[in-house]
Amino acid sequence: MIRARERGAGFPEDLLLPDVFVPTLQFQDGNVDHCALRRQKVEAQYGREVTMKAPALLILSLDNERPGHSGRLYRKISRRLIPLLFLSYLFAFLDRINVSYAQLQMKPMLGFTDAVYGLGAGVFFLSYVVFEMPSNLWMTRSGIRFTLLRIMLLWSLASAGTMFIKTPLHFYIARFLLGLFEAGFFPGVILYLTYWFPAARRGRVTTLFMLAIPVAGMIGGPLSGWIMSALNMKDNLAGWQWLLLLEGLPTSVLGLICFVYLPDNPSQAGWLNDREKAFLTTDLAKGADSIGIPEAHSTLKDHLIAGFELLKHFQVWALGFVYFAIACANYAFTFWLPTMLTTAGVGSISRVGLLSAIPYGVGIIGALAIARSSDLRGERRWHIAGAIALAALALGASNVLHSSIALTVLILAVAAFFLFGGGILFWAVPPTCFRSDAAPAAIATVSSIGVIGGFISPTLLGWIKTQTGRLDTGISSICVLMITAAVVLLLTLPDEPGVARKNKA
To answer: Is there a contact between 259 and 149 (Cβ–Cβ < 8 Å)?
Structure first.
């Protein structure tokens, strides 16, 4: 940011000019014509004339607000917000998928079939879909602090309480409650990030937040395997029960920390000074695709009306379908990865946990690499579609190339690289496509349409596994779906979605 000062020309003493053209620029008598082009740029951007009166001197000088100041400001915001949001989502995803490891002991102990497990894993998403939009809309009124406190305390209890199930019905109810309580967390955070970061920076920030997904898998596999092996039947509790208890309860503590630590919006951030807040407000507002904070007079009814209007727009359904395909693949991978490894010949639960960390670790590299490439090139469409298509090819290859454990792990790692890379980057796109009044409902709608895949995918694969003893047919169907989604994305998403579609939705 640059401070503009003019002496003797009647120019305002202080004018904050973001996005400077040159480090030092002087207008002084003979230099006026030489700098006319830059002067015109300043005048065009800020809508006021730069007048020269001899011996007037206008200096655009560097003080402590250098052109790199915006970068420092956003790094400061990232350091304050992203680690806690990342940790919260890590536990959210861990509590969502730890059942994939628990089922290795739970199924034989409780007499559950693969179909029961698949349906139970999927039931989570039924309640999640129903309550996701209301939760996200309510967040615009109550703020992120109360929203995350409510969500995280309740899902902590539901996750830990799953340890007491005895029958398939108990399992279905526990998973339904977990989805109900967790609903709104993810779209709420995606919306929250738009209060702090302009679209040009949001891809990388969203990636940092969503890296919690593969990190949860990388940490959760070995941790879950160790808990289930080391604590099995300790104090008359099975290993899978200890797993759900120990991975579920810490979330309640995180919820309290979020309530105390997170500001609802930049105006409440005591660690930003007035100048930083003013720059942030200006920087968010000037972007054509910036969502920004909902206006104070916006009501829940306003958001609902805007949200239902979005259902008339094809782009909402197109984005929802793409995320549906990503969710199908993602949850096929996360809920059935331990089963794929045992099918390949991995024997012990602890070894399943250790080997499952490899694909997730490669997925982290993929998410960082693809997001960085996308941000540097300012391009989303081909990065996302290409990654989805390549992930589909790798998953398809896992159906036929599973002659050894090492080969299976290698192919799954390639699939994870592109699946997490494209799937995580996808969420940099929806916030750029909608007006501020429609954004909360729009993000939740796209998420809800997509998350239905979280129900269909594990349920379908569980039923197929029970009927045939194999996952091949289900995996192949998901691969075809992913290729279709890549084509839909290429055909419907413009190169600059925030500009091209801003006025349409």
So the answer is: yes
Sheet of 25-27, strands arranged across: 15-17, 2-7, 57-61, 25-27
- Asked if 133 and 438 count as a contact pair (C-beta separation under 8 A), the reply is no
Query: In angstroms, how far is CA 470 from the centroid of its own chain?
Result: 32
Helix/strand/coil for 120: helix
Distance CA 432, CA 320 (A): 15
Question: Structure tokens of 72?
Answer: 């420092």
Choose between 486 and 500: higher pLDDT: 486
d(CA 482, CA 321): 10
159 closest CA partner among 230, 234, 245, 100: 245
Per-residue buried b or exposed e for 154-191, using 16+ beta carbons within 10 Å of the residue's own CB: bbbbbbbbbbebeebeebbbbbbbbbbbbbbbbbbbbb
The 3 state secondary structure assigned to 366-388 is: HHHHHHHHHHHHCCCHHHHHHHH
Closest CA to 97 of 122, 75, 114, 79: 122
**CB atoms < 10 A from the CB of 347, how many?**
10
- Residue from 210, 156, 220, 217 nearest 187 by CA: 210
138 Cβ partners below 8 Å, 6+ apart?
147, 184, 300
Angle between helices 405-426 and 212-230 (to 10 degrees): 140
CA 324 remoteness from chain centre: 15
Q: For the packed helices 300-310 and 439-468, what is the interaxial angle rounded to 10 degrees?
A: 60
Dihedrals phi, psi of 189, to nearest 5 degrees:
-70, -40
Q: Which two tokens stand for residue 433?
A: 């496509």
Is the separation of the CB atoms in 485 and 321 below 8 Å? Answer: yes
Task: Confirm if 303 and 291 have CB atoms less than 8 A apart.
Answer: no
Task: Classify each residue of 205-218 as buried b or exposed e, where b means 16 or more C-beta atoms within 10 Å of its C-beta.
Answer: bbbbbbbbbbbbbb
Residue 280 carries which side chain, given as an amino acid letter?
L
The per-residue pLDDT for range 406-450, each reduced to its tens digit, is 899 999 999 999 999 999 889 878 777 766 556 666 777 787 788
In single-letter form, the type of residue at position 251 comes to T
What's the pLDDT tens digit per position in 167-208? 999 999 999 999 999 888 888 898 899 889 887 787 778 878
